[in-house]
Design a protein that fits this description.
binds zinc ion
Length: 91
């Protein structure tokens, strides 16, 4: 799997400028043990809204209870993350 972001360097404070006109997300990582998968808790930079993302290195990712393969999430999310079509080329 690709090298992961060091979330410890991510801020835990609210309303930190992201340099793009908004606020940085607040990200908390939990490394799973045993049957528990790794998890990211991603909180809004401005309020207490949050989403939970569970993931493993083999098949899938679960975002807010919706489970699908990594390939399927790529198909859905890459066009949103790279609206100019300049993102990585998968499938
Ligand atoms: Zn918010």
């Amino acid at each position: 799997m690709a090298e992961r972001t060091n979330f410890k360097s991510y801020n835990k404070k609210i309303a930190i400028d992201d340099g793009e006109g908004g606020s940085k997300l607040r990200v908390y990582q939990r490394i799973g043990r045993g049957v528990e998968s790794d998890r990211l808790l991603v909180k809004c930079g401005d309020c207490h809204e949050k989403i939970q993302i569970c993931y493993d290195d083999t098949y899938g990712i679960e975002i807010e209870g919706v489970y699908a393969s990594i390939a399927e999430w790529r198909r859905v999310l890459l066009p949103l993350l790279y609206p100019k079509g300049d993102g990585p080329d998968f499938e």
